[in-house]
Structure prediction request, 341 residues.
Amino acid sequence: MRKWHRTLLILCGVMGGLLAGEGAARLYFLLSNSSDHLRISANPRMLVEPEPSVTYRSRTGQRVRVNQLGLKGEEISPRKPGEFRILAVGDSIMAGEYLPEEERLPNLLARRLAQSTAERVLVWNAAVGGYNVWQVLATLESKAPRVDPDLVLIGVCANDYIPFKNRAYRIGGRVFIVGRDGSIARHLNFLYQRSDLYKWGYDKLREVVFSRLIAEEGYAAYLQDYAVSVDSAHVERWKEALEQMVKIAKGLQAKPVFIFFPLHPQVYRGEEAMNRRLVSWAEEKHYSFVDLTGVFRKEDPTGMSLYRERDVVHPNGRGFHIAAESLYEVLQGPHRMGGLR
Prediction:
């Protein structure tokens, strides 16, 4: 066989492999529907919001149902006697889409409360992955009056005070970037925009590199320094936004409860100081809250068993069960401030 024949066969094999890989990647993203459940929001303070009336699979294959209002949960009907309504807001931790619906924190709490009351406990989850505190505030303003909740769970994580998280969203089959200044733009990388195989490989490589970086003390110190610098500029605005959430909840005759989520101690050691600030602020304001930093440390000083593997942000099922029980104890205090710390 001539040399050019071999070269042609090799090229055809490579092209065939790439085409097969591209087809497999597109099928993967189609089945996982990774971010196509989002749309650009008409509310500029929210930027993006869930597509209403859809059911999709999260990146971990879990079923997620979204009602007509864009909330995870059943459709909202007029309030009936004997109902206790819970509305949860926050970011990807509170959303919990990487776990089955019944294992997400708001649902665990609802099931626990239902064991001690004759009321029917209903829960709606308005949390969206990547949201910061100002997007959460806009969501609460928009959605809470329609839900008419009795209890509002406000999830707060140390990275929520970043004005906007530089993040890519897949919307309508295209990739959009939300910059830290709140601007929205299409991803400029030609291959990332058009090739799902390239996007899959790029994201996996970034995940591997990040998982190696989190084991390095220098990277943890970098995150700590970054947190301090951002905190100095935005912490007062952050607190003002949280106080606005309390006013909205109380205006609807609902009880607001903050849940201060810790990040994995292996990475974000500086985050603990931020949570202490929030605890002092909540105590001064006489707000109800649960600080999970102390709760998690008491259960596991290393924190390793309470988070997903290679994940420095999201608690696993065990972590959420512990969080739900701690939250339940705070609510049974009766309504005592602070709870377990």
Remarks:
- Residues 1-32 form one domain.
- The chain has two domains: 1-32, 80-331.
- Confidence is low (pLDDT under 50) at residues 217-231, 335-341.
